[in-house]
Design a protein that fits this description.
The protein has three helices and three strands, in the order βααββα. With 69 residues, the chain is of the alpha+beta class. The protein has a three-stranded antiparallel beta sheet. Strand 2 and strand 3 form a beta hairpin.
Length: 69
């Protein structure tokens, strides 16, 4: 099995409000719940002083790549 991993980050220009972190929007719900459930993805979603960072790792198979060629 192959693993496809993507990293992303979003910087914010103002300090992060910790009350905002507790709320979950649709994008965060997708990353933290839907992708692991539907695609067996491993995800991480973390807030830092400069913004948010996200990593998504999806299992793939050699057959997936062969079918596209």
């Amino acid at each position: 099995m192959r693993i496809l991993t993507g990293h992303g980050s979003k910087r914010v220009g103002v300090p992060i409000d910790h009350d905002t972190i507790r709320r979950k929007g649709q994008g965060r719900e997708l990353i933290e719940q839907a992708l692991p459930y539907q695609l067996r993805a491993e995800t991480s979603y973390a807030f830092g002083e400069d913004g948010v960072r996200c990593t998504i790792s999806l299992p793939t198979s050699a057959r997936t790549f062969e079918e596209r060629e």
